[in-house]
Amino acid sequence: MPGEKSLELGKRLAGVECRNTTFLSGDWPIFWERAEGVNVWDADGNRFLDMTSGFGVAGEGYGFTGEALRRQSATLMHAMGDVHPARVKVELCEALSEMTFEKWEGRKGKCLFGNSGFEAVEAALKTAVVATGRSGILSFEGGYHGLGYGALLGAGIGWFREPFDGQLARVTERLYFPKNSEDMEVFRKQLAQVDGSGIGAVLVEPIQGRGGIHVPPEGFLKALRAWCNEVGAVLVFDEIYTGFWRSGKMFACEWEGVVPDLICLGKALSGGFPISVCVGKAEVMDRWPVSGGEALHTSTFLGNPMGCAMGMEALRRYRQAEIENMVTEAGERLGQALDPLLELGFVTEIRGRGLMLGIQADSGERVIDVVKRMLRAGVIALPDGPSGDVLALTPPFSVTADEIDFSVESVKAALLGV
Ligand SMILES: Cc1ncc(COP(=O)(O)O)c(C=O)c1O
Predict the structure, then answer these.
(1) Measuring CA to CA, which residue among 364, 334, 370, 374 is closest to residue 352?
(2) What start and end residues bound the annotated signal peptide (predicted)?
(3) pLDDT-derived band at 145, boundaries 50, 70, 90
(4) Ligand 1 centroid vs 266 CA: distance in angstroms?
(5) Which of 59, 102, 4 is nearest to 270 (CA)?
(6) 3 state DSSP class of 320
(7) H-run or E-run covering 309
(8) Ligand 1 pocket, residue 214 CB under 6 Å
(9) Mutation choice for ligand 1 from 139, 140, 144, CB with most ligand atoms inside 8 A
């Protein structure tokens, strides 16, 4: 592993893709051929258990919105998103409003679509400027919001941002992201020192994902909500990773019962089509001027009908009562099965929520070695954290007890180097 066909594809790719994009070596990557449920098959016919949900996209599993895509693609693949839109865009806006601000506060949410997750973040940052007239951003160390230029303004993992700093406006203040209750003191002191008068947006992940799976202590989101109310900034929750049950609640902000002004969603929204959205309180979104025929923020594929149809099917599934139990039960089983790894010595902490768990190891080298060994054993996992020293496990919600046990055995064997 990788087999001959994957190795051959790697050689071909090396000649034709930007060399910074896909990591290629003698033992990486496998090239995917098909996927279903929690399984992926590669070009050589090997089957894998995907404990990443393909970056958190395959919420309930691969293919759960496939029928909706087939149906939609048979009739309408593309519409004119901000000119003559598809009917299904309206339906998805209504469903998103119902599941967010209507549920939380009994008032409408309004949507601004994008393709990739980072575009939803950029839509939120623009909305904050429009709504407040201020360009300042408050974000957090370790934060990840995608890699477009707008989203990079909020980036808290320096090496993603630094090569491009010269083209980025100096508008961001970055605070420490509290990881436990003792950290709250540091965070509160830092927040008290921020001059809020220039800050338009507070951009935060309710649980940091790419930054190493950090669940902030109770009180953190409430403190941000109170601060935004005080200074008149817009509170943006980036739930592109955590949204749609990943953390064991439909949205991670529901753990603390804090309602943002804007919420960014992507990844599991469609189960596999590039579509994202910034949903905002109507009163904030209505600060945008009414379109007079030229939208200030749009794109060719905005509200693409295939993405919207898949989104509608995904939301239908996410609203089924059994999903919460699936995630809670699988998350508990995974957490319990992982616990004994703490005794091995190389693992210092296991943390996270729902089906978003991180195993903190003693080094990034160890995690890379583990990830490669797991791949050879048929399990896909990824490193997380600014220095890659966290092994992240974020399987599809349909993962079974046997599959959880199999994956944990493979983590253990990999840690022990066997
Ligand atoms: C919290 C968060 N925000 C934004 C993004 C960017 O999404 P995309 O890669 O689809 O642009 C990610 C991607 O991992 C993410 O985890």
Answers:
(1) 334
(2) none
(3) very high
(4) 8
(5) 59
(6) coil
(7) helix 305-318
(8) no
(9) 144
C-beta of 403 in contact with ligand 1 (< 6 A): no
237 Cβ closer than 6 Å to some ligand 1 atom: no
Tell me the chain's radius of gyration from C-alpha atoms: 21
Among 119, 108, 69, 49, smallest CA distance to 267 is for 119
239 lines ligand 1 (CB under 6 A): no
Rounded to the nearest angstrom, the gap between the alpha carbon of residue 191 and the centroid of all alpha carbons in its chain is: 25
236 with 279: CB under 8 angstroms? no
Choose one of 122, 153, 240 to mutate for the ligand 1 pocket test, by most ligand atoms within 8 angstroms of C-beta.
240
pLDDT, the chain, mean: 98
197's CB contacts (< 8 A; 6+ apart) are 134, 231
* Residue 418, pLDDT above cutoff 90: no
Which domains occur in the chain, in start order? Answer: 4-63+322-415 (3.90.1150.10), 67-318 (3.40.640.10)
Cβ–ligand 1 distance for 210 under 6 Å, the answer yes
Q: How far does residue 344's CA lie from ligand 1's centre (Å)?
A: 32
Spatial separation of the C-alpha atoms in residues 114 and 301, rounded to whole Å:
8
Q: What is the pLDDT of residues 180-214, one digit of tens each?
A: 999 999 999 999 999 999 999 999 999 999 999 99
Rounded to the nearest 10 degrees, the angle between the axes of helix 183-193 and helix 220-231 is 10
Of 30, 31, 49, 29, whose CA–CA distance to 39 is shortest? 49
